Amino acid sequence: MRFAKIKQMLLIPFAALLMLVALAMPGQAQAASKKTYIIGTDQTFKPFEIQDKDGTYNGKNPGIDIEILREIAKHENFKYELKIMSFNADVQALQSGQIDGMIAGMSVTEERKKTIDFSNSYYTDGVCLAVAEDSKITSMKDLKGKTVNVKTGTTSAIYAKSIQKKYGFKLKYYTNSNTSWADVKAGNADACFDDGPSLRYGIANGTGLRIVGKQVSNAPLAFAVKKGENQELLKMFNDGLAWLKKTGRLKKIVNKYTSKKVVKSQVVADTSILGLIKDNAGALLQGLWMTIELSIVGILAALVFGLILGIMGIAEHKFWHGLANVIIYIFRGIPMMVLAFFIYIGMPTLLGHKLPLFTAGILTLMLDEGAYIGAIVRGGFESVDVGQWEAARSLGLPYYKALWKVVAPQGFKLMIPSLVNQFIITLKDTSILSAIGVMDLTQTGANLIAQNFQGFKMWLIIAVMYLIIITLLTWLSNYIQKKMQH
């Protein structure tokens, strides 16, 4: 009877896991019936992707890639949903089947052709070297011993790696261009390799950099799908692209962002802290709500999972005790970012279905934070005097009744401070999920900085918002703790 009760409780987190995974199924069927394709694109890659102040590509000037996709989808009569992530995450999502296609200024290379099918090219791109305006670097020969930034997974990173030994510089990797450029401007790096048109566009909008030398490593850009899959989508893109070229629309789109009279980024008139808050209030509130939503659902899921692990950890049967130790060891040992990528990009390969982004985020929080909560719960129960167990059992109480009626109430009081601290850590850890494209407060801040180049002020605003949330959560937790102790 005792073990049957424990087994029933152990099924709770795994049932919850299956329910979360099942959420992906209806969305997959619906997408297929309506011919709505999931298209991955970059977070910030001007002039190919230019987000509006709300962090979307719904504006009049969304960039070369988005305008091309928008025109082709309209002409070929298919729908699409954009999935905004870092370039490297987009490539991994494409190869794992999480997205149907990708348009993010991707260069066609022989290496990528092994796993990706490309459309016909819509633009020829290249790599440039950029330095701060006051830098003394005038050629690649001056890079010896210097630190050079690149964007992970891009052609510029591949090119920089190929000449690194020749010129003797150190490489530093970033997930987006804006952060890489800001690092050079701030003097933390000496130079950066990046896409030529993107650098020229950024310089025209006040990044404070200048290009050194000529554009090199020119390569065609194209739309991409996973090799052997989504061939219908690829054909529609090629047909639409041929129509754009024939009608002159493609040239018009490209010139709009690459000629001397390029479309400018959104200009922020008031760059004071209050001005930035007022101008970006909508986006900040959306990011804040996503952070709160992730925190609440994630904490609840982690609490259930951790509670089960804690009970397993003190079970009399050695099997459950050992299983709990293994689970806690695994998920505490895996970095949360690695776990997030595995769940969002790796699990679909095993399941054969896509995972919604929010679901992947909650699963990540549940497994990672739940492992820590499991250790806390186990420790709290073990901290209760063994005499309490003996007294309860001597009165004839079964194991599970002795746990819930005698030991658990005392154990929870002992573990409250640690649980409160773990809840706060969970809230802060939601920012890690921005790596897989979750539009939380951190990701929102990164997108806004890409538009207004006010890095210090925007991160200060984001930091204060996190501090306010954590302070309110701490006050609430302290209030609950006092109530339970009386």
From TrEMBL:
Pfam families: BPD_transp_1, SBP_bac_3. Its main location: membrane. Gene3D superfamilies: MetI-like, Periplasmic binding protein-like II. The chain crosses the membrane at residues 288-314, 326-347, 458-480. InterPro entries: AA_ABC_transptr_permease_3TM, ArtM/GltK/GlnP/TcyL/YhdX-like, Iontro_rcpt_C, MetI-like, MetI-like_sf, Solute-binding_3/MltF_N. It is found in: Cell membrane. One of its GO terms (cellular component) is ATP-binding cassette (ABC) transporter complex. The keyword Ribosomal protein does not apply. Residues 1-31 form the signal peptide. SMART domains: PBPb, PBPe. Keywords: Cell membrane, Membrane, Signal, Transmembrane, Transmembrane helix, Transport. It is a multi-pass membrane protein. One of its GO terms (molecular function) is ligand-gated monoatomic ion channel activity. One of its GO terms (biological process) is amino acid transport. Residues 288-477 form the ABC transmembrane type-1 domain. Belongs to the binding-protein-dependent transport system permease family. This is Glutamine ABC transporter, substrate binding / permease protein. It comes from Lactobacillus delbrueckii subsp. bulgaricus (strain ATCC 11842 / DSM 20081 / BCRC 10696 / JCM 1002 / NBRC 13953 / NCIMB 11778 / NCTC 12712 / WDCM 00102 / Lb 14).
